[in-house]
Amino acid sequence: MNGKIQKVEAEIEKVRAKITAQQARLRELEQQKTELENTEIVGMVRGLDVSPEELATLIQAIRSGKAGGSPVALSAEKEDLEDEE
Fold this sequence. Notes:
Blueprint: H1 3-47, H2 52-64, H3 71-84
């Protein structure tokens, strides 16, 4: 085989190896980001002073559009839940 072709093939293999390594690194970083986001979400949820049932109700209200998602709307929703008890 031609020496130039061999050099190009060798370069192709180097690039493929680098791409594979970078894809693995990308997957690791994406996983790390997801874990950090989950930790942040758990921290925010734990910071709320609501029971799991109240939290579920709040989430359902947000999903159905009954609560605007603003802190004022969420606070009003929480007060409504407390009044119902």
